[in-house]
Design goal:
The strands form 14 sheets. An 8-stranded mixed beta sheet has the order 25-24-32-28-33-30-31-29, with helices on one face. The protein has a 5-stranded antiparallel beta sheet with strand order 37-38-39-41-40, with helices on both faces. Strands 1-10-11-12 form a 4-stranded antiparallel beta sheet, with no helix packed on it. The termini are far apart. 40% of the residues are buried. Helix 10 packs antiparallel against helix 12 and helix 12 packs antiparallel against helix 14. A hairpin with a 2-residue loop joins strand 40 and strand 41. It folds into 6 domains: 28 residues, no CATH class; 105 residues, Bulb-type lectin domain (Agglutinin, subunit A); 140 residues, no CATH class; 36 residues; 126 residues, Phosphorylase Kinase, domain 1; 246 residues, Transferase(Phosphotransferase) domain 1 (Transferase(Phosphotransferase), domain 1), CATH 1.10.510.10. It is α+β, with helices and mostly antiparallel strands. The chain has 15 helices and 49 strands. It is flat, with a radius of gyration of 34 Å. Bound molecules: 2-acetamido-2-deoxy-beta-D-glucopyranose (8 copies). One 2-acetamido-2-deoxy-beta-D-glucopyranose binds next to loops. The site of one 2-acetamido-2-deoxy-beta-D-glucopyranose has 6 residues, from loops.
Length: 859
C-alpha cells in the first residue's frame, strides 16, 4: 500500500481513516478496563493488562471455528489461554460482543444479541467497571473500588477454568468437602469441561488431588505447612522455598490455598491438561523464549492413584514395581504374578487384637509396629490431637482397626483405620510410617541375625574407639601444647543408608548428637543447586570468600539465592561450615542473614542463603561513586539494624554468641537496605554465665579486632562491641579504619579521637552526608562509637541492658542509647531534664588521657 503524496486531495479521506484507525488501535492497546456502554467486539478488539502481560478477547482454540471469550498471555509463545468465559456456550460466528449489561454484569452476546454468558453476580451498583489486572484477574466492581479484589462483585479468579495462577485462592473447607476447583478442557480444540479436574481434598491435612471424573488419579500427599508429603522432589530446595501457602483459619472455618511468587516478574502457571496431566509451566525469558515444564504429575505409574492396590507398595526404581510389605502377601497371587496389581495385598497372619481368645495361638503376644522409611503416606489418614510419637503409637494400638500411624512434623499424629491406600516407597524423601503387625510377623526369625549384626557393629565400634583414643593420646604426647579440640562438633551426615546418596529434607543432619536441621533448614540436593547456579558458572560468581567462592542462583520459581561453596576439603573450612550451620540454623532475626538450606553430598559442602541484591555495606561506604546513595537516614537505620542484630546475638537469642568477625563487608544489605549480619564461620557460643574466653588461633580482620583480642586472644562480647564501634565510625565518616596508614593518624580511631579532643568532632562526618544529616544524631553516634572503641574492654558499654542509677541517669549500653533515641522523639516536649548521659570514657590508655563529657540528650 502506498500513499500518493502528489495528490493529497484524493488521498485525504484515506489518510484521515488511516489516522483514525491507528488511533483506535493504539487506544485499544492502551486500555485494560471496560465501563458501562463500552464493548469488546470480536475482530481485533481486546483488553490488555498493565505491563502487557495478559490479554482478554475473542479467540478460537486449536482448529476449532467456534469463538470464545478468554484471557491469555499477551506476548509469550503460543499465547496460552488461562481462562475462558463461555466455555460451554461457544459462538458460531464472528459477531460476538463482550460488554457490561444493564444490570451491571459482564455479558457475552452473540450475533443475534442473545446472552450466551453472564457473570451473573448480585451487583449493587448500576455503574460498574471491569478491569483486567496484571495478575490475569478480570475484576468487576463499582467504579469507586476499581481493581480492589476484596470489594469485587465478581472476579475471574473465583471462577477458574483449567489454570491455577499465582494469586488465586482455592477454598479449603471441610464443610464444603472436595473442591474440584479446576476442570480440564475436553480437548485441545474444545474448552468445554472435560473429565479431569484438580483441586483440594480438605480432610485430614489438606492435599492437592487430580480426579478423573470422580475417581482419584493422583494426590500430592498431606500438607505439612511446608511441603506436600507425597511429592518427594518438593523436599529439594527448588520446590520448597517458594510457592504454596495455606492461609490461617478464617472465622467461618475455611482456609485458602494460594501460590505466591517470590519474584513477581516471573510468569508461572499450573494447568490441568485435557489428557489428565497437571503441568507447572514457567516462562523462560532467556535464549529459550518458551514455556518450560517445571514439573508434571502424575509423572510415572507409581504416581497413579493406588497403582498397587490396597496395602500394596509401589517402588518406581524396581523392575517389578509393586510389592507387598513385610507381613503381607498378594490377595490374588495369580493375578499379581501376571502383573495385574489392582487386587493389592492382605495380611499373612491376622492381628492379635482381631483373634478371638478361643483361636489357636490366640494367647500370643500383643501386636507391634514396624517402621518403614521413605514412604508416601497412605490416603485418608486421620489427624489426631496433638501429642508426641509415643502417644501416637498408643492411640493406634488402642483401636484394632488402626493399621498404621506416622508422626509428621508440621501435622502431628496421623493414624490410618482401614486399608492402606496409595502407598509408595521413594528412593529419597518421603516419611517414616509405622505399620501394625502381629508379633509373629515382626521378624523374630531375623532376631538372631540382627543380634549377630549388632554384636559385630558394637565390637567394631569399640575397636575403632580404642584406636582413636590411642592415636589421640599419641598425638597429645607429641604436642607440647595443643588447642583444645573437644568443643569441635562431630559431624554425622545421616543415620540411615537410604538417605546418604541423595539427601533431602527428611534426612537428619546430626551434629553433636542433636538434629540441627528440620523443616526450617532443608538439606537440598546437589543437582538442584547446580541447576540454579548454571553449574557454578563464572558469570554467576558473586565473589570469593575466605573458604570458597560464592555464587548467585535462581530457583525455578524465580527466588534468588546465594550459594557458598566450600573449596577443597581443608579441615579449617569444614569447621567453619559446621559452625555456621549449628549457629545460624538456630538463629532467626531480621538483622541476621538467613540460611535457607545446606547441601552435603560426597565432597561437596554448600550453604544456601537468601540473596542480598545490594551486596555488602563496604561496597557503598568506601566507594566514592556510591557513598551519596547512603544518606544519613539510611545510615542511621543501618547502624540501628546492626545494633539490634548484635543485641540479639549477645542477649536475646537462646545462645550467647560472639561473632568475632564483624566488619563492614560482613554486613549485607537487602533490597530495602536492611542490614543483615553474615558469616558466622568464626562465631563462638558462650554459656549463659561465661563472659570471656581465650583462643590460640586469633582469627578476624585487621582494623576491627579489639586490642585484647589481637594481642592476647581474649574475646568476649566486648570485642564485638569494639568491632561495632569501628563500623559505626566508618559509617559516619565514610572512611575505612585502615585507610589512614599514610597520614598523621594511625587509624580512623586515632583521627576521631584527635578531632574530639580539638572539639571539632563534626569534621569526622562524611562530606557526602554533611547536608543530609541531623547533627544531633550524628553526635550521638560518634559518641557511642567512641565509647565502643575504648582500649579497656571493661569501659566499653554492652549491647544489652542499660542502667539508670538513682542519682543520675547513666547510660552504659549501646542498645540503651538507641532505645533512648526513640523515646526521646516521643518525649521531646515533656521536658524531662533527667535524661542525661554523664559518661566518663577513657580512650587509648597509651595516651593516658581522661575525658569527661556532659552530654545533654535533650538539646
Ligand atoms: C486439526 O485438524 C486436523 C484435521 O482434522 C487434525 O489432523 C489435527 O490434529 C487438528 N489439530 C488439532 C490441534 O487438533
Ligand atoms: C440467530 O438467529 C437465527 C434465527 O433464529 C439462527 O438461525 C442463527 O443461527 C442465530 N445466530 C446465532 C449466531 O446464534
Ligand atoms: C444466575 O444465578 C441464579 C442463581 O444465583 C441462577 O438461578 C440463574 O440460572 C443464573 N443465570 C445464568 C444465566 O447463569
Ligand atoms: C479415566 O477414567 C476412564 C473410565 O472412567 C478410563 O477409561 C480412562 O482411561 C481414565 N483416564 C485416565 C487418563 O486415566
Ligand atoms: C525429581 O527430580 C529429579 C532430578 O532433579 C528427576 O530426575 C526426577 O524425575 C524427579 N522426580 C519426580 C517424581 O518428579
Ligand atoms: C525477577 O525476575 C526477573 C526476570 O526473570 C529478573 O530480571 C529480576 O532480576 C528478578 N528480580 C528479583 C528481585 O529477583
Ligand atoms: C515452544 O515449545 C513448544 C512445546 O514444547 C514447541 O512446540 C514450540 O515449537 C516451541 N517454540 C519455540 C519458538 O521454540
Ligand atoms: C476404632 O476406629 C473406628 C474407625 O475410626 C471407629 O469406628 C471405632 O469406633 C473405633 N473403636 C474404638 C474402640 O475406639
Amino acid at each position: 500500500m502506498s500513499v500518493d503524496i502528489k495528490n493529497p486531495v484524493v488521498n485525504f479521506p484515506f489518510f484521515l481513516f488511516f489516522l483514525l484507525f491507528s488511533c483506535v488501535s493504539h487506544f485499544c492497546h492502551a486500555i485494560d478496563t471496560i465501563r458501562q456502554g463500552e464493548s469488546i467486539r470480536d475482530g481485533g478488539e481486546t483488553l490488555i493488562s498493565q505491563g502487557e502481560i495478559f490479554e482478554l478477547g475473542f479467540f478460537s482454540p486449536g482448529n476449532s471455528t467456534f469463538r470464545y471469550v478468554g484471557i491469555w498471555y499477551y506476548k509469550t509463545e503460543g499465547s496460552p489461554v488461562v481462562w475462558v468465559a463461555n466455555r460451554d456456550a461457544p459462538i458460531s460466528d464472528r459477531n460476538g460482543v463482550l460488554r457490561i449489561g444493564e444490570n451491571g454484569n459482564l455479558v457475552v452476546l452473540d450475533g443475534n444479541n442473545s446472552i450466551v454468558w453472564t457473570s451473573n453476580a448480585s451487583v449493587q451498583s448500576s455503574n460498574t467497571v471491569a478491569i483486567l489486572l496484571v495478575t490475569g484477574n478480570l475484576v468487576l466492581s463499582s467504579i469507586g473500588s476499581m481493581g480492589d479484589t476484596t470489594k469485587a462483585y465478581w472476579q475471574s479468579f473465583d471462577h477458574p477454568t483449567d489454570t491455577f495462577l499465582p494469586g488465586m485462592r482455592v477454598l479449603v473447607s471441610t464443610v464444603m468437602g472436595e473442591n474440584h476447583a479446576f476442570r480440564s478442557w475436553k480437548s485441545a480444540n474444545d474448552p468445554s469441561p472435560g473429565d479431569f479436574s484438580m483441586g483440594i481434598d480438605p480432610f485430614g491435612s489438606p492435599q492437592i488431588v487430580i480426579w478423573n471424573q470422580t475417581r482419584r488419579m493422583w494426590r500430592s500427599g498431606q500438607w505439612t505447612g511446608v511441603v506436600f508429603t507425597g511429592v518427594p522432589n518438593m523436599t529439594s530446595l527448588a520446590r520448597y522455598l517458594y510457592g504454596f501457602k495455606i492461609s490461617p483459619l478464617n472465622e467461618d472455618g475455611s482456609i485458602y490455598l494460594s501460590y505466591v511468587l517470590s519474584n513477581a516478574s516471573c510468569l508461572l502457571r499450573f494447568r490441568i491438561g485435557w489428557d489428565g496431566k497437571e503441568e507447572q509451566l514457567k516462562w523462560e525469558d532467556g535464549l529459550g523464549k518458551n514455556w518450560t515444564v517445571v514439573q508434571s504429575e502424575p509423572s510415572n505409574d507409581c504416581e497413579l492413584y493406588n497403582f498397587c492396590g490396597n496395602f500394596g507398595v509401589c517402588d518406581v526404581s524396581k523392575s517389578r514395581k509393586c510389592h507387598c510389605p513385610q507381613g503381607f502377601q498378594p490377595k490374588f497371587p495369580d493375578q499379581w504374578n501376571r502383573g495385574d496389581w489392582s487386587g493389592g495385598c492382605q495380611r499373612r497372619t491376622e492381628l492379635q487384637c482381631k483373634r478371638k481368645p478361643s483361636d489357636a495361638g490366640g494367647s500370643g503376644k500383643q501386636d507391634g509396629f514396624k517402621g518403614f522409611k521413605c514412604m508416601k503416606l497412605p490416603d485418608f489418614g486421620k489427624v489426631e490431637s496433638p501429642g508426641d510419637s509415643k502417644t501416637c503409637s498408643e492411640k493406634c494400638m488402642a483401636n484394632c482397626s488402626c493399621n498404621a500411624y506416622a508422626y509428621i512434623t508440621g501435622i502431628g499424629c496421623i493414624i490410618w483405620n482401614g486399608d492402606l491406600i496409595d502407598v509408595q516407597h521413594f528412593d529419597n524423601g518421603g516419611n517414616l510410617m509405622f505399620l501394625r503387625l502381629p508379633q509373629s510377623e515382626l521378624g523374630s526369625g531375623k532376631m538372631i541375625s540382627n543380634l549377630v549384626i549388632a554384636i559385630i557393629v558394637v565390637a567394631g565400634l569399640c575397636f575403632l574407639c580404642i584406636t582413636v583414643w590411642l592415636l589421640w593420646r599419641f598425638k597429645r604426647n607429641m604436642k607440647v601444647k595443643g588447642e583444645v579440640c573437644s568443643s569441635i562438633p562431630t559431624f554425622n551426615e545421616s543415620k540411615s543408608k537410604e538417605f546418604s546418596t541423595d539427601l533431602s529434607v527428611s534426612a537428619e543432619l546430626v551434629i553433636d548428637g542433636s538434629q540441627v536441621n528440620g523443616p526450617e533448614l532443608p538439606l537440598c540436593n546437589f543437582q538442584c543447586v547446580a541447576a540454579a547456579t548454571n553449574n557454578f558458572s563464572e558469570e554467576k560468581k558473586l565473589g570469593q570468600g575466605g573458604f570458597g567462592p560464592v555464587y548467585k542462583g535462581e530457583l525455578p520459581g524465580g527466588q534468588q539465592i546465594a550459594v557458598k561453596r566450600l573449596e577443597g576439603r581443608s579441615g579449617q573450612g569444614i569447621e567453619e561450615f559446621k559452625n555456621e550451620i549449628i549457629l545460624i540454623a538456630k538463629l532467626q532475626h531480621r538483622n541476621l542473614v538467613r540460611l535457607l538450606g545446606c547441601c552435603i553430598q560426597g565432597e561437596e559442602r554448600m550453604l544456601i542463603y537468601e540473596y542480598m541484591p545490594n551486596k555488602s555495606l563496604d561496597r557503598f561506604l568506601f566507594d566514592k561513586t556510591k557513598q551519596a546513595l547512603l544518606d544519613w537516614g539510611k545510615r542511621f537505620a543501618i547502624i540501628e539494624g546492626i545494633a539490634r542484630g548484635l543485641l540479639y546475638l549477645h542477649r536475646d537469642s537462646r545462645l550467647r554468641i560472639i561473632h568475632r568477625d564483624l566488619k563492614a563487608s560482613n554486613i549485607l544489605l537487602d533490597a530495602e537496605m536492611t542490614p543483615k549480619i553474615s558469616d558466622f564461620g568464626m562465631a563462638r557460643i558462650f554459656g549463659s554465665n561465661q563472659y570471656e574466653a581465650t583462643t590460640v588461633r586469633v582469627v578476624g580482620t585487621y582494623g576491627y579486632m579489639s586490642p585484647e583480642y589481637a594481642m592476647e586472644g581474649l574475646f568476649s562480647i566486648k570485642s564485638d562491641v569494639y568491632s561495632f564501634g569501628v563500623i559505626l565510625l566508618e559509617i559516619v565518616s565514610g572512611r575505612k579504619n585502615t585507610s589512614f596508614r599514610s597520614s598523621d593518624h594511625t587509624s580512623l580511631i586515632g583521627y576521631a579521637w584527635d578531632l574530639w579532643n580539638e572539639n571539632k568532632p563534626m569534621e569526622l562526618i562524611d562530606p557526602a552526608i554533611r547536608n543530609s544529616c541531623n547533627p544531633n544524631e550524628v553526635m550521638k553516634c560518634i559518641h557511642v562509637g567512641m565509647l565502643c572503641v575504648q582500649d579497656s574492654a571493661a569501659l566499653r558499654p554492652k549491647m544489652e541492658s542499660w542502667r539508670k542509677s538513682p542519682a543520675q541517669s547513666r547510660l552504659t549500653s549501646v542498645a540503651g542509647i538507641f532505645v533512648l533515641f526513640h523515646l526521646l522523639d516521643k518525649v521531646k516536649t515533656s521536658r524531662s531534664q533527667d535524661w542525661l548521659i554523664k559518661e566518663d570514657f577513657i580512650f587509648g590508655q597509651s595516651f593516658q588521657s581522661h575525658y569527661t563529657y556532659d552530654y545533654d540528650l535533650m538539646t
